[in-house]
Amino acid sequence: FRRSSQSATPKSTNRHITVLSQYCGIRDEVRRRNLIVGPSLQTVASRRRRATARLGPLHTPLQSTLYDLEEKESTASTSDEDTVFALSSGSGVTAVAVIRISGRNAFDALKQLLSPYSLEAGAEPPKLPTPRMASLRILYDPLSSSDHLNRMRDPLDSALVLIFPGPRSFTGEDIVELHCHGSRAVTSGVLKALSSLDSVRPADPGEFTQRAYGNGKLGLVEVEALADLIVADTSLQRKQALQQFDGRLSRLYLGWRKELIKGLAHAEAVIDFGDDEALGEEDSSFDSSENDGGMSVWADVRPRISSLREAMDRHLEDASRGELLRDGLRIAIVGRPNAGKSSLLNLLAGRDAAIVSSTPGTTRDVVEVVLDLDGVRCSLLDTAGVREEIEDGVDEIEIEGMKRARLAAQEAHLIVGVVDCSDQKRGLEAVQELIRADGHSDSARSSPHNNLLYVLNKRDLFEGEMEPCGVDSETFAISCTTNQGVDIFLAALSKRALAMISQEGDSSGDLSVVGTEGAVITRARHRRHVEAASDALQRFEVLSSQGYMALDMAAEELRLASSELGRVTGAIDVEDVLDVLFADFCIGK
Ligand SMILES: Nc1nc2c(ncn2[C@@H]2O[C@H](COP(=O)(O)OP(=O)(O)OP(=O)(O)O)[C@@H](O)[C@H]2O)c(=O)[nH]1
Ligand SMILES: [Mg+2]
């Protein structure tokens, strides 16, 4: 740390250091090393300029120190010096394969590949393509023998070559992209050639993105969005990930955090002045600050913080739409044995995923099929038929199957009850029994009827008109054999699924599905931190009404809220998150 304001007294500077190290979660480190370290004054000044350009004028020493520190955090973690390469397109044979090289030796490595003669033997280095312009070049194998004048190296491929000098690149470092032919012989030849160079090494999974993060090219929330985008299965998942990637969510959190830091700076200033005035003076000055300063400190801050907390609470009250869309809905198919559950699953999946037979009790394990219902990712779960354990032919395996069926129903977001329409009464009872048994009320669903659809199957075997079956959930008469009624049922199921990830009154699947501003919580991690921030602000509201004595404590709550938001965006304490996150990435990303 370095004092960044001449006007701050040593005492308040020290306080800032304590506050800041606590705020950054590095207090113990600072204590242990007993060190006060900081960048040169010049660096501080240039960071301050950058922060000012980004965030507007800085008002107080504390605020400017905070910004300095944030800047330092984001630049301190630049990636290591190695230059890395990887096949960034999928493995296996493709028409085009993209190989990326990132790091300060990237261009040197490219020169090695572009040179038809050995550079070590004194050949003239080849010219690099114009930055960001595709150029068709021959790649040569540095492993093949060549001498300066006579023998050329073996060509590896004729490839499109692109270079992106840092920092204007994905990782912020120099990047080379080779668009080769996608055969195994070409890609393995180029990768082998790169491996033979001392200056580069193969990349770890997610290392390109990690470098982009380390160099401040992507925020944590964007990295998470990128991870989601890479594995998105459906159109709505893609839309949501793209919206998050475009920075909507982090802008929201950064905006909130900026507001909190403003309030905090305000409080710190008052704490300092209060302290300094009190120095050497008696209780009289303390009294005055209690009456005036104490009450008015928060006068402008409180309403702003209150509305901030309201915004957070609104943000949290989203019925987990973003998370549902990201993780997918679970739809359990339940009912009596032989009702046609497995037949329905196979029909919807378009393949024979589960065994169908006329023997009751065929399905034992839960069979899962992933479906894209109008852009919503859904896991459809076929379960064992439920019936009385005393019925004929029930063995212990089937009992275990029924247990699993109940569990699947419990964890499902939607339940499809399949009933043989020639045996409606028993069929409906079995489903209702199952739902009662799972104690729905405390699950994610508010009311069981909202999340239950009945399918009256084997319509083809049923003669005459269907009687209304007297349940208050939607029912659909279908036949898995003739496909009768299946389209209508599928449309209703999709509508339900969409409604669960949409805002109220909107089931169109438009962009607005994922929130009017697109800023939707997509991970439990975000929810946890935003909840903690909102809780802290609630405590702040109480403490800030208690005058000067509680000033410190109230300020502490603001600090806490701000650091919780900092954890979402990655400004603070994110090592553990990063480890987990980058482990999910594939190599070459
Ligand atoms: N006629 C007719 N038969 C059907 C229909 N749907 C299913 N079946 C038959 O009903 C029998 C049972 O079907 P499954 O899909 O295995 O029933 P299930 O509910 O999975 O049964 P369990 O796995 O034992 O719980 C099979 O012989 C199917 O061919 C239908 O709509 N019409
Ligand atoms: Mg079955």
Query: What is the CA-based Rg, rounded?
Result: 32 Å
Which regions have little confidence, pLDDT < 50, spanning 5+ residues? Answer: 1-12, 31-44, 57-65, 67-79, 275-294, 440-449, 505-516
CATH superfamily descriptor of the largest domain: P-loop containing nucleotide triphosphate hydrolases
Under the CATH scheme, the architecture of the largest domain is 3-Layer(aba) Sandwich
Query: How many domains?
Result: 4
Overview of the molecule:
This protein has 589 residues and is an alpha/beta fold. The protein has four domains: 10-76, no CATH class; 83-214, Probable tRNA modification gtpase trme, domain 1 (Gyrase A, domain 2, 2-Layer Sandwich), CATH 3.30.1360; 248-318 and 518-583, tRNA modification GTPase MnmE domain 2 (Four Helix Bundle (Hemerythrin (Met), subunit A)), CATH 1.20.120; 325-512, 3-Layer(aba) Sandwich (Rossmann fold). It contains 20 helices and twelve strands. The strands form two sheets. Strands 3-4-5-2-1-6 form a six-stranded mixed sheet. A six-stranded mixed sheet has the order 8-9-7-10-11-12, sandwiched between helices. Residues 1-12, 31-44, 57-65, 67-79, 275-294, 440-449 and 505-516 have low confidence and may be disordered. Bound molecules: guanosine-5'-triphosphate (GTP) and magnesium ion. Guanosine-5'-triphosphate is lined by residues 337-343, 356-358, 360-363, 384-385, 457-458, 460-461, 479-481. InterPro entries: G_TrmE, GTP-bd, GTP-bd_TrmE_N, GTPase_MnmE, MnmE_dom2, MnmE_helical, P-loop_NTPase, Small_GTP-bd. Belongs to the TRAFAC class TrmE-Era-EngA-EngB-Septin-like GTPase superfamily. TrmE GTPase family. This is TrmE-type G domain-containing protein. Keywords: GTP-binding, Nucleotide-binding, Signal, tRNA processing.
